[in-house]
Amino acid sequence: MSEQLEEQSRELLEDYLLRCRGDERPQPAPPAADTLWRVAQEVHLGHSAFFKSCEELETEPGSILQRVAREVALEGGLNWGRVVVLIVFAGTLAQRRRKAGTPRELAGVLSRFLVREQADWLEKNGGWEGFQKFCNKKGNHQGQENSHFSNALMAAAGVGLAGLVFLLAVR
Predict the structure, then answer these.
(1) Which of 112, 119, 136, 143 lies 20 to 30 Å from 3 when distance is taken between CA atoms?
(2) Residue 146 burial (10 A CB sphere; 0-12, 13-18, 19+)
């Protein structure tokens, strides 16, 4: 089960990261891909100054992503808001580093973190099918004003993420 979930996670995250960079994506897209893209875009657009500042980080992308993910989980546990913010952060890192393989590497880092280190939480919350259900609840759909859902996700993610990223980057 966990191997299947890890592969599903890696495919979904790699699809998102390739899309962030404007690269060709494998077809067919993973089932949750459009939902993830929509929600992540809402978060990114609503908090673009924060994510723009992350572009200036001078550190190895996979390493900082892994450290930030672990610290976010320790800081108060996971929720879908924190997961989406981590994914958007990974997208920012992928855009910054155009070298071949970066989306695959970052997708691997984040999927291993979610499936191996946070398996109980991910399974308890229904995996990526649970993510789709959570994000597509009545009232959380495309017709809704973006700022409400984005703000709710960022609040769920915790406001300490910006400080955490920079603290880890200078260590």
Answers:
(1) 136
(2) middle
Cis status, amide bond into 28, omega within 30 of 0: yes
Name the residue range of residue 35's domain. 2-170
* Number of domains, the chain: 1
pTM of full prediction above 0.85:
no
Tell me the CA end-to-end span of the chain in Å, nearest whole number.
Answer: 36
Rg of the chain on CA atoms, in Å: 15
Rounded Cα gap, residues 152 and 169, in angstroms: 26
More reliable by pLDDT, 67 or 152? 67
Start-end of H helices in the chain: 2-21, 33-46, 48-54, 61-76, 80-96, 102-112, 119-124, 127-135, 146-157, 161-170
Domain with residue 106: its CATH number is 1.10.437.10
The set of residues, in sequence order, having a beta carbon less than 8 Å from that of 165 and lying 6+ positions away, is 54, 57, 64, 68, 89
Confidence band, pLDDT 50/70/90 cuts, at residue 55: confident
* pLDDT of residue 151 exceeding 80: no
- What pLDDT, on a 0 to 100 scale, did the predictor assign at position 159? 44
The residue written with tokens 């913010």 in the block is 85
Whole-angstrom distance, CA of residue 35 vs CA of residue 13:
12
